[in-house]
Predict the structure.
Amino acid sequence: MVYITDDPLILKNIVMKDISDINVVDVHLTARSYKIYIGCNLNEQIADFIADYYGDKSLFILCDTSVEELYARPLTEALRAKGVNAPHIYSVPSGEQSKSVHIYADCLSWLVQEGAKRDSLIIAVGGGVIGDLAGFVAASYMRGIDFIQVPTTLLAQVESSVGGKTAINIPEGKNLVGAFYQPKAVFCDSAVLKTLPMRELRAGYAEIYKYGLLWDSAFMAWLEDGHAEALLKHDLHAVHYAVKRCCEIKAEIVSQDEREGGVRALLNLGHTFGHALEALCSYDDRLRHGEAVAIGMCLAARFSAKLGYLSSADVEIIEAHIRRVGLPSQYADIPDAPEITVDDMMKVMAKDKKADAKGINFVVMQALGRTKVTSSYAADDLHNVLHEFLN
Ligand code: NAD
Ligand code: GLY
């Protein structure tokens, strides 16, 4: 089947095999527009795309050690079968510690040593850590070279690979150094989720539920109606629909507000609380990012109720759902959680990137599926919610 793109980037026909089985979501950003492809076993389509647009360029796969053999090497084979240049592969250790200045510098040195040019392509194969790292490498190498995202975690497919936020961490804080830099395409392959540990799948699910809560009550109802459990059991229909709906919502939001001057801030629902918990747990294995978001959404729900927006029945719907899918909903659910006080939480939240002169901004739920950002609340209300949460 011939698929005709209206992508302003390249006005030509792309021949994509089995495109009828692939969902395509457009991210409209004028000259930086791109497409998100969602389907199962996409290596051939990824190779077609690369052969069409970068077939005579040098290719660089950045991945982590967990996915190198599983997904980076098979993609290399698919590219070889198309007769394009074999990509160079650089594999970094799995985990958050790879979003460091040190590893970032190693990646840049590797690109220089392997002869990467301004027209080379970086292919990010991995979870959110790799997407954020490879994206920032691409944004900064020779003042910016093209990259595509091949996200291999559910979290990366529904959230981090879309929208162009790239970053690394410094000792002073997470994601403090980065750039808004959009990929040229994103390929969400449901087949890769089969090897993802259940804990990671659930962590990704937290971000899926977030889209329902913040934007789309009908999607939330669909998730409540057994589809959450179905997608956690790898039901392909459920996975594809959920990934597509999340990407559609994120594309709509990012297309309106690429650099988070307004509506994009809603995507941070649960994150101000969640980031503080991640920091207080030293970003270690006790708390995955998605798990922190799950607890953060429960806190955001309680705070929204305290401010008079949600009913206690709404809060219970949210907390019950989060518990039902096996995600943590309260502080006591964090294994070996450090002993912390309300002041500890407040101090970390005050350093949040979204804090401004008016104070800490929170995304609150006005109703299920409807959110807004607010900095107008009584300090006592926030204090009381945190006190109840920690005691
Ligand atoms: P991750 O990248 O660390 O992946 C989680 C674990 O799963 C790792 O051990 C990884 O090696 C392994 N893995 C990945 N794919 C696998 C697969 N298919 N099979 C088996 N194992 C696999 O973590 P994550 O949860 O994907 O991403 C978290 C990161 O994303 C954080 O650094 C966070 O800050 C960032 N993030 C960025 C954005 C954004 O908009 N850029 C949004 C949300 C989160
Ligand atoms: N992860 C939030 C955003 O992309 O804006």
In short: The radius of gyration is 21 Å. The pocket of glycine (ligand 2) is lined by residues 159, 163, 165, 260, 264, 267 (CB under 6 Å). The CA atoms of residues 334 and 379 lie 26 Å apart.
